[in-house]
Design goal:
Length: 193
């Protein structure tokens, strides 16, 4: 299995890119979340990978973070969800937002991702609910759960319904870094309503 690649980017055409390693060009497919953080063509990069072997092809997928790769691997274990749908999910929603959607059973948010219908969203929520543990979706800062996931858990513990907690967190706005700030903004939004 190819676990990671370190080399020079020779082409980028979303969702595909080519990374040259020791004179060999590896073609990869990557989610848009990884593409947004890739350096320019001709620059060195290191990507985590997952190799999918099919009857007609070997496809290498590249990821910018361990959290993305771990979620991809969990998604392709869900019946009816293959690598293309998993890639679409990772391109349309962040790892932490996916975690919140699954635990709040927010089918509407998942169906907004292109290629995800209602039945697939329901299956994802049912099958992923027990698989997604906070340590799996640890943030880069101290190994704990992401600020969004911690804030969601706190709001539910305060008595907010899962869908309401998700809505309050979305209204808190992007750019909020800490769990405390997210909770404070979400509660201020609830008071204003």
């Amino acid at each position: 299995m190819i676990g990671s690649l370190r080399g020079r980017i020779t082409s980028k055409t979303p969702p595909q890119l080519t990374v040259e390693v020791g004179g060999v060009g590896y073609e990869l497919e990557a989610p848009m979340s990884t593409f947004f953080h890739l350096p320019a063509v001709g620059t060195d990069v290191q990507l985590l990978t997952h190799l999918v072997v099919r009857e007609d092809a070997h496809v290498l997928y590249g990821f910018g973070s361990e959290e993305e790769r771990r979620l991809f691997r969990s998604l392709i274990k869900v019946s009816g969800v293959g690598p293309k749908i998993a890639l679409a999910l990772l391109s349309g929603i962040s790892v932490s937002d996916f975690y919140v959607c699954v635990h709040s059973q927010d089918i509407a948010a998942l169906t907004r991702v292109p290629g995800i219908g209602r039945k697939t969203a329901e299956r994802l929520i049912i099958e992923m609910r027990d698989r997604l543990a906070a340590p799996e979706l640890a943030g880069a800062t101290g190994g704990g759960a992401s600020p969004e996931a911690e804030a969601y858990d706190a709001l539910v513990a305060l008595g907010y319904r899962p869908a309401e907690a998700t809505r309050l967190l979305k209204a808190a706005g992007p750019g909020t870094q800490s769990t405390e700030e997210l909770i404070r903004r979400a509660l201020q939004g609830a008071v204003r309503e």
